[in-house]
Write a sequence for this structure.
């Protein structure tokens, strides 16, 4: 059996850092773990517009690529950690449209929403980061450095979770250890651990 943990949220809110700490904790317990990440960067490398320039085509490609990697990872691993699950991609697309004051065509909206509705139940745990505007945007990566767009992304991702009634756990700068413990407990409940070392404390 394989299970998936997805983490969604605006850029520079601690998603990758959280997964980077969770993965070795799970591996220390004997689980085979893989992480799907950097799909947007892969899309950009193929010439797709991303972030505030997201289009229907780029979002559809990101969703399809994400589903592919998640399904492949589940074949050979106990746990798939998903940096930016499908609801995140839809939220970013909506944020880009709002930022540019544009609207999707009805069939485009219905297609992307159908993907989220169909695939969201495959995540055993969804985590959503809460934007802390005091936390600066990471300048070391090719990101959109517009704070207004980052706020829109956070708002639209939250709206997607609410609209589709997706149960999730909020990750803030102050509850990282609690969410790590919850994620490990979710895996332990589904899979008997081979070893059970204590959960290490982690601070941002």
């Amino acid at each position: 059996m394989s299970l998936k943990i997805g983490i969604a949220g605006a850029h520079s809110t601690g998603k990758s850092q959280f997964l980077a700490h969770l993965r070795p904790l799970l591996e220390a317990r004997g689980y085979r773990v893989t992480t799907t990440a950097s799909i947007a960067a892969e899309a950009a490398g193929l010439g797709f517009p991303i972030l505030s320039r997201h289009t229907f085509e780029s979002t559809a490609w990101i969703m399809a690529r994400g589903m592919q990697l998640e399904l492949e990872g589940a074949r050979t691993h106990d746990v798939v950690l998903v940096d930016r699950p499908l609801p995140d991609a839809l939220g970013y697309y909506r944020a880009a449209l709002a930022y540019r004051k544009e609207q999707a065509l009805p069939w485009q909206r219905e297609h992307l929403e159908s993907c989220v509705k169909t695939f969201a139940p495959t995540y055993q745990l969804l985590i959503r980061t809460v934007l802390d505007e005091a936390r600066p945007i990471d300048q070391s990566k090719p990101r959109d450095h517009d704070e207004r767009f980052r706020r829109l992304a956070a708002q639209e991702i939250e709206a997607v979770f609410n609209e589709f009634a997706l149960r999730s756990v909020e990750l803030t700068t102050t509850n990282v250890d609690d969410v790590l413990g919850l994620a490990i407990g979710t895996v332990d409940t589904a899979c008997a651990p081979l070893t059970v070392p204590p959960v290490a404390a982690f601070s941002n």
